[in-house]
Amino acid sequence: MDKSQRSKRGMIAAGIAAAAVVVLGGMYIAGSASGSVPPATVDFADISAEQKQKLFDRGLQVFRAADCAACHSSPTTGAELAGGTAMVTPMGTLYGTNISPSKEHGIGKWSADDLYRAVARGMAPGRKNLYPAMPYASYHDITRADVDALWVWLQAQPAVEVPNREPEMHFPFSIRPGLALWNALERPAGAPAPEASNSLERGAYLVNTLGHCGECHTPRTSSFAMDLKQSLAGNVIEGAYAPDLRPKAMAERGWSEQDLLQFLRTGLSPQGVMTMGMFPVLQHSSAHMEEADLKAMAAYLMQSEKPVVKLAAEAPQTPTSANGERIYIGLCAGCHGVDGQGQPHSSLRLDTNTTAMFPTPLNLVRVIREGLPERDLAHGERMQAMPGFADQLSHEDMADLVNYMRLRWGRQKGDVTPAQVADVIKTAESH
C-alpha cells in the first residue's frame, strides 16, 4: 500500500470515527437533554418586591462566588456580561459568551430552567452541548435556589448587544455533539447539593462547586476530566503551577486560616500575592464576597491544620549556590531585602513566600524572567511592579538563583538544572 492509499484510508477511518461520535452523541442527547430539572424554588409569576430584592442580592453573591465575570466579561471594554474572553486549551480556543439579557446575543429568551440546564448540566437551549471550559463539571452540584437567584439577578442587568464569537476548535473537538459522550463518561451525576447546614459544609460548597477551585487545582485525566481521586492536589495549567490546596500541604507551606482569609480578601498574605491566573479571581470574585463566606472557605481548606513549615536538610554551600546568592544580592535584595523580609505594601516577603516551596520551579522561573505588573489589589493593598530579568540571566544563572531561593526559603534541595530551566521556559512560552 502506497503513502497516498494509507492517507486516504486514514481519512476514511477518521471520517467513520467522527460519524460514530456524531451518531452516538446524538443518541445520548436524545435520551438525556430533555430530562427533568429540579423544580424552581420560587413562583416567578407571583413574586413580591421584597422577595425579588432578596433574590437579586443573593444572585449577585452567587455571580461573584462563581466567578462568572472572569470568563464572561469583555476583554476590550470590560463590560461584565458581554463575553469575549479567550480560553486557550489544547483542543482549541473558546470564548466566553454573552450572558446579558440581550434577546439576540445573550440569554434574554432563557427561562430559569434553561439556566439550570446550562450551568449544572452543560446543555444550552436547543440541545446545544457546552464545552466543559464552562465548569459545569463543578457546578453540577449547585442548588436550584442559587440558580433561581442568579437568574433573577442576570435578568435585571442591562442587555449588552455584542455578538458571540464562535469557538475555534481543532478536529474532532469541533464536532459539538461528541461532547455528549464526554458528558456521559465524565460529567458527575447526582442530585443538587442541599443547603449547607454549617460553616464547613458552606465552605465545601463554595470551594468545590461555586468557586470551582478544582478546575485549576485538580490534576486532569487523559480525557481532560478532573481526577477527583486527587482533588485539589495541584496541577500545571496555562503554563503555571496551581498549587496543592489540601489541608496538610497548605499547613506545610506555612498557611493558617487567618492568612488564607487575608489572602482571599485582599489578594496578599505573608505566603504570596494573587497573580497570574489568580488575579482575576480576586478582581471579580473573592474581593467582593461576604466575610462569612470567605471564613467558611478558609476553614474548609485548612480543616483546623496548624501551620508547620516542613524543613528539608540544608545542602552544603557550593559554588553554584554562592553564585545564586551573588545574583540575589545584586538583582533582588534592593526590594526584597537581604533576608527576604520585603517591604510592606510594596514588595513581597520571600522568607515566608510559598513559591519557592512548590515541587516545581515553574512559577519561580516565570516570575523572575517575566516580572510582575503593578497591582492595585483589594481593601487598600497594592504591590509595585517587578521587572523581568530574562535578558540578564542565562539558564545557568537562572538555575543558580532559583536554587538559592528554594534552598534558603523553600527548604528544598537546590537541584534545579539549566536544562530544567529551559524546559520551564518552553512550557511557559507554549501557553
Automatic annotation (TrEMBL):
**One GO cellular component term:** membrane
* The keyword ATP-binding is assigned to this record: no
Cofactor(s) demanded:
heme c
The terms under GO molecular function for this entry are: electron transfer activity; heme binding; iron ion binding; oxidoreductase activity, acting on CH-OH group of donors
The UniProt annotation places heme c 1 binding at: 68, 71-72
Query: Which UniProt keywords are listed?
Result: Electron transport, Heme, Iron, Metal-binding, Transport
Q: Which Gene3D superfamilies match?
A: Cytochrome c-like domain
PROSITE patterns (UniProt xref): CYTC (PS51007)
Instruction: Please give the InterPro entries that the UniProt record associates with this protein.
Output: Cyt_c-like_dom, Cyt_c-like_dom_sf, Cyt_C_IC, Cytochrome_c-type_DH, Membr-bd_ADH_cyt_c
This entry's comment on the bound cofactor is: Binds 3 heme c groups covalently per subunit.
- All copies of domain Cytochrome c, residue ranges: 54-158, 198-305, 319-409
Binding positions (heme c 3): 332, 335-336
Q: Which SUPFAM superfamilies does the UniProt record give? A: Cytochrome c
Task: Please list the residues that bind heme c 2.
Answer: 213, 216-217
Name of this protein: Gluconate 2-dehydrogenase
Specify the species.
Comamonas testosteroni
